[in-house]
Amino acid sequence: MGTVKADGFFWVNPLTAKRRVSLKANNLNGQQLKVNDKLGNPIEIAAVVVWKVNETAKAVFSVENYMQYVNIQSEAAVRHLANIFPYDHAEGEETSITLKDGAEKVSELLENELNERLSRAGIEVLEARISHLAYAPEIASAMLQRQQATAVIAARKLIVEGAVGMVEMALEKLSQKGIVELDEERKAAMVSNLLVVLCGDRHVQPVVNTGTLYN
Known about the structure:
- The structure is a single chain.
- Strand 2 and strand 3 (about 40-55) form a beta hairpin.
- This protein has helices at about 55-60, 65-85, 105-120, 135-175, 185-200, and strands at about 25-30, 35, 40-55, 125-135.
- About 45% of the residues lie in helices and about 15% in strands.
- Strands 1, 2, 3 and 4 form a 4-stranded antiparallel β-sheet that branches.
- By secondary structure, it is α+β, with helices and mostly antiparallel strands.
- Helix 2 (about 65-85) packs across helix 3 (about 105-120) and helix 4 (about 135-175) runs antiparallel to helix 5.
C-alpha cells in the first residue's frame, strides 16, 4: 500500500499488515574466505561492509530476506574481487593493482560492485574495505621465503653498488696522489681483495705482507 518514513501519527487500514524496516546503517563483518587470486595462489580474505536500506519497498518485496541477501552477495563480491587481482606483484608480471598494495582502488571497486549487486534489494553500500588478507597457511612459509630472498637480493645489490664505488674511489685517490703505481694485474688483485672485504658478511682476517709487492 505504501511506505511511511516521516515521524508522527497516521491513520492506516487496520486490516493491513505493518512491517518495520530499519533505515540505520549496519555493519557486516564478513567471515574469512579461502579463495584463489588471479595467479592461482590460495589466499584468505575478508571484508567489512557498511550498508543501509535505501528503498524499503524493494527490501521487503523484491527479495525474500534482505539481510541474508546482503550476506550472500557480499561474499560473492569478495570472491570475485579476489579472483581478478593478484595478492602481490609477481616476478615477470606487469600488474598495476594488487590486493596487498592497491587498498584504496580495491575498496572502491568492491564498493561499486556491491552497490550494483544490492541495488535490486534497495540496499545502499556506504563503505566496503578489506579487513583481512593473507596467504593460506599451506603456502605462507614458501611466500615468506620468497619475500626474504627478495629482501636479501636487494640488500646485496646495494652493498655491491657501494663497494664498487669505494673501490673506484680508492684507485682514483692512489693514482692522483702517486702513493703507489700498480699495473693491471695488481689493480685486479686489489679490486678483488677490496670487494671481498666490503661485500663479505663476515669479518675478514687481515694478512700482513712483509715482502715486496710481487711476493
